[in-house]
Design a protein that fits this description.
2 copies of one chain form a homodimer. Chain A has one domain: Metal-dependent hydrolases (TIM Barrel), CATH 3.20.20.140. The mean pLDDT of chain A is 96. In chain A, strand 5, helix 5 and strand 6 form a beta-alpha-beta unit. The relative contact order of chain A is 0.15. The first copy, chain A, is built from 12 helices and 9 strands. Chain A is of the alpha/beta class. The interface between A and B is medium-sized, with 32 and 32 residues.
Chain lengths: 336, 336
């Protein structure tokens, strides 16, 4: 069975989008709950999802284990897996890792763009790696089965997380820096470390991560994936679209500026273009995954490789990652 | 008028201790509200103080401005000024700086022992200096009149705070590293920077900061102050006893381990001696400040210098620090 899985979305969720997800045949999506929310606000966001799950049970349900991907396929629905792009959700409390895992949080970034209590974000001038609390929290995430996601972290922190974590880590949504030198894209060192430790890289469709931005064409995107596979293998590659569909620009302001500054931080944007950039024409919403599959074929990937990149690798990663440590059948040690 | 002011205490407050403060003739005390508390918990701690202020109005009242020191003297009471040893009280929200200043918070450490969202604590292996949020928050503290306290911060972060802050900063409770090489004590570079920028250093009586710990004698302590004054001047020196009177050892466990680890962190202590160390015999409680005054005289300080160190320097620092930036009559620029 070949699955279609997206490693990251943060849309302005609605029945229309859920129906598009179904129309696109997406089996599972890792959705973002948190950019700067604290624990209580994170729980409120879970409550919103609970209402959506209750209202549209024929379209979506909450995923807790990798088996829920197959359940989604069999029942014609989409499994929604929760994640956080900021450890703000655990505040300063390591005990909240297990609590949030019980509530279904399966991914947590150790940092968003700035320094966190755990590690350094990619927008800081300097990166001192994992903090004391960061090392403790990674161990706790390893224990309960919450994936360390370093998509927005600095280089040194990312490599430190790979080294310190006893289980594979993820970069759910980013592209190679050599292809497009954006601050959010990842170095060869990081990509190589993911490839060698059972980790995973989700290629991003967010225009700021793309060469030529919104004008990036499908061939360019898929050729970039092919070049990455040639260098590092395709066994650890997936898609993490970073789709932020129907979001007002106030949301990207929240993402960037949170509550940490009284100024406006433009992040990847600029004063002239502060809002969400338009998505490439060949990936407007969840109905367009087929374009990527076709593009990967055209870029030279074999059908089984396309299937792996479009979901198979994520499915295997989910299976290795979401259970408690002693139950993990696959892991970093096994991959080495 | 010469004042007696303590730059830091965190006791298990009681009528007995308040009466000792009065018996000792202490005009003002900077008390710690926060070790790891978030905003709501900080407000709860303010509520506790409000009940004490209501219950013992003849002994204590909340200080908001430097004028309250003189008011305390005239009315035979002690002015209590609030401070936080951790920026956990503002969580990730720069707007809470002004809110907490309005509630009376006059000091905030940018870090306790660990990395914070703002800067690096002295127990981290590496110190990358002020973070993006740290620079923003220091500017906001400067604006409203909240003192940047770097007592528990790393060396580089401390020097960065001196440089970035437009107003003088404090190390409310620490001693020179050259006298006793504890992780919490301060380098010549830090002490020199305080001396030259209108800052202030409060000498600590906490045994882990003392040469020979609880056995440190009065002469050794006062000679250390004299050596510091010879090298850097006495104009920026005060006392910050770090008195933690009547606290159960569970409190020092909270200080050290907070919620950031599931292990026990022994901090300045050890597995063999995890609790609060006994205070030196010549400074058991607030009635013993006279011993320090006598010791300073014996160490060679003139009476006006003793008065400055025992409170005059703090009074001047309070006057320069607690008002909004445009109202500050003294400041770092003036001191330079």
């Amino acid at each position: 069975m070949s699955f279609l899985i997206d490693g990251l979305q943060y849309s302005n969720w609605s029945e229309e989008i859920f129906r598009q997800i179904r129309a696109g045949g997406v089996d599972a999506v890792h959705v973002t709950l948190v950019y700067h929310e604290n624990f209580r606000e994170t729980v409120a966001n879970i409550e919103r999802w609970n209402r959506w799950f209750e209202r549209w049970p024929e379209l979506i349900f909450q995923g807790f284990t990798a088996e829920d991907i197959a359940l989604a396929r069999v029942t014609g629905r989409t499994a929604i897996f929760f994640g956080s792009q900021n450890p703000s959700c655990i505040e300063d409390d390591i005990g909240l890792v297990e609590v949030l895992h019980r509530l279904g949080l399966r991914f947590m970034q150790l940092t968003y763009n700035n320094q966190s209590l755990l590690a350094t974000g990619c927008y800081e001038a300097e990166d001192a790696g994992l903090t004391r609390m960061g090392r403790e929290v990674v161990a706790e995430m390893n224990r309960v089965g919450m994936v360390v996601d370093m998509s927005h972290s600095g280089e040194r922190s990312t490599l430190a997380a790979v080294e310190h974590s006893t289980r594979p880590i993820a970069v759910t949504h980013a592209n190679p820096f050599v292809w497009h030198p954006a601050r959010r894209n990842k170095s060869d060192a990081v990509i190589g470390a993911l490839a060698q430790t059972g980790g995973i890289l989700g290629f991003s469709l967010y225009p700021h991560h793309l060469r030529d931005g919104s004008s990036c064409d499908l061939d360019g995107f898929c050729t970039m994936i092919a070049r990455t596979a040639e260098r590092f293998g395709s066994h650890f590659l997936g898609i993490g679209t970073d789709l932020c569909q129907d979001q007002p620009d106030s949301v990207v302001e929240w993402m960037r500026s949170g509550r940490w500054t009284k100024m406006v931080d433009y992040g990847e944007g600029s004063k002239e273009a502060p809002g969400f950039p338009p998505m490439p024409g060949w990936f407007r919403d969840n109905r367009d995954f087929g374009n990527i599959s076709k593009g990967l074929r055209a870029a030279g990937f074999a059908p089984d490789e396309v299937a792996a990149i479009m979901g198979g690798n994520w499915a295997r990663f989910f299976a290795a990652s979401f259970g408690a440590a002693q139950m993990a059948s696959e892991g970093k040690r096994a991959a080495e």
